[in-house]
Amino acid sequence: MHDVEAAELVERVAYDLCENDALCILEHDVFDPAYACVRDFKSLSAIGRIRLADALCSNLSVLSASVATLLAGGGGDADGASDAVASHREAVKTYATLVYWLAEAADAEARDAAPNATGVASAGDKTGKKASGGKGSKKAAPLVEWKWEEQRERVLHVMSGVLDCDLWNLFRPRQPSEQFLGLFQRLACLAMESPAALKSKARSVHWSPYDRVGVVNAVS
């Protein structure tokens, strides 16, 4: 996507997600643009990435709370409530998948950039100068920066909120699929492979890829 096209699409997605019920992600005219933004995440501007991550995470957080309320009130047992439970279940699966794909793309980009950043820093140390060069090469700092390690903390927190729900009740009569639970396991592994993530405040959320249902144990 071109920059202008991408910016407009992100704004459309953010508006649709923020102005409508969280279940709107199940509508094709909302899901398709959201999927396109996540698919082309690396081509988005910093503000576009932040807007997209914020919209998806906010709605997933709201949806998790809605699921908890629905199930706690016996929504899964009430007559005619099966459609509501099914809609919430599909929406949770959709948001969790989109958030995971976003996290996977952001993490891969961060890993690729790490060696280059280290090399530039080393070169600057050897020459005794900043890597940016002389006075004339100094660039203005961007107004908005995408910092994945900061965004990762929110992603971990929001995804842990999904696993605080009664998934067995939400997915019954079947169990949550291996594919769905695998999203959380892979996200946990990505976090554990990042030295910055292990040192950050995200350590308040303890991920265990061996815990089949409570893949995340949120510690308040």
- Count of helix runs: 8
Largest beta-sheet characterization: 2 strands, antiparallel
- Span between termini: 40 Å
In spatial order, strands of the major sheet run 1-2
Strand content: under 5%
Number of strand segments: 2
Q: What's the gist of this structure?
A:
The chain is mostly helical. The chain has helices at residues 3-19, 28-39, 46-72, 82-127, 148-163, 167-171, 178-192, 195-199, and strands at residues 205-207, 216-218.
How would you describe this structure in keywords?
disordered C terminus, 220 residues, single chain, two-stranded antiparallel sheet, mainly alpha
Could you please describe the fold and organization of this structure?
The structure is a single chain. With 220 residues, the protein is mainly α. The protein is built from eight helices and two strands, in the order ααααααααββ. It has a two-stranded antiparallel ribbon. Helix 3 packs antiparallel against helix 4 and helix 5 runs antiparallel to helix 7. The longest helix has 46 residues. The N and C termini lie far apart (40 Å).
Task: Please outline the helices and strands.
Layout: H1 3-19, H2 28-39, H3 46-72, H4 82-127, H5 148-163, H6 167-171, H7 178-192, H8 195-199, E1 205-207, E2 216-218
Antiparallel strand pairs: 1-2
Helix pairs in contact: 1-2, 1-3, 2-4, 3-4, 3-5, 4-5, 4-7, 5-7
